[in-house]
UniProtKB/TrEMBL annotation:
GO biological process, one term: phosphorelay signal transduction system
Signal sequence, start to end: none
Organism this protein belongs to: Methylotuvimicrobium buryatense (Methylomicrobium buryatense)
UniProtKB keywords: Phosphoprotein
Positions carrying 4-aspartylphosphate: D54
Pfam families: Response_reg (PF00072)
Protein name stated in the entry: Response regulator
Membrane-spanning residues: none
Listed CDD domains: REC_HupR-like
UniProt domain Response regulatory: residue ranges: 7-120
Length: 179
């Protein structure tokens, strides 16, 4: 496994489901848990790129778990895996827990692989957009500071910030001002 591999949390109360998903997603750094409670403890210790949770688990269902998980790791992508897909459940998962994708059991291995790849690419793009927006905000603050300095200079020495440039890039000095 690549050290830079995305970290994925797999949550399901059935050990055989966790083993099957682990085989399919072996190219990633995987952490497994068999309950929402156990997963929340892991989420306090490890930063994940993606979490895939079963919808129906004893104790805490997948949506309830993901609503708590999102408070700990809002930037992680979230998916629900279920054998009991219905429109109302899907809407609830998307609206309440910001679920990126709803996957059905039994699954198609290729569908799981592709869904994970798309989710991780989506996360990468969101992070890149956030980084670029932060960079723009820093640049705007710098320009604002520079503009304030220029206005202060202009107030102190009117015309100091006005420069006449020649076509070759040299500065044109009006000699009449010095006579």
């Amino acid at each position: 496994m690549n050290e830079d591999a995305a970290k994925i949390l797999l949550v399901d109360d059935e050990q055989n489901v966790l083993k099957a998903l682990s085989r399919i997603l072996r190219d990633y750094h995987l952490v497994t848990a068999q309950s929402g409670e156990e997963s929340l403890l892991l989420a306090k210790e490890i930063e994940f790129d993606l979490v895939i949770s079963d919808y129906r688990m004893p104790g805490m269902d997948g949506v309830e778990f993901l609503k708590k998980f999102i408070k700990l790791q809002p930037n992680a992508m979230r998916m629900i895996l279920t054998g009991y897909a219905d429109l109302e459940s899907a809407q609830h998962a998307i609206n309440e827990a910001g679920v990126f994708r709803f996957l059905n059991k039994p699954w198609n291995n290729l569908e799981i692989i592709n869904a994970v790849a798309v989710a991780l690419e989506h996360k990468r793009i969101l992070q890149e957009n956030k980084d670029l927006a932060d960079q723009v905000r820093r640049q705007q603050a710098l320009l604002k500071d520079q503009d304030a300095i220029l206005r202060a200079l202009e107030a102190e020495e009117p015309g100091i910030t006005k420069v006449n440039w020649a076509a070759d890039g040299s500065i044109i000095i009006n000699e009449d001002e010095y006579e």
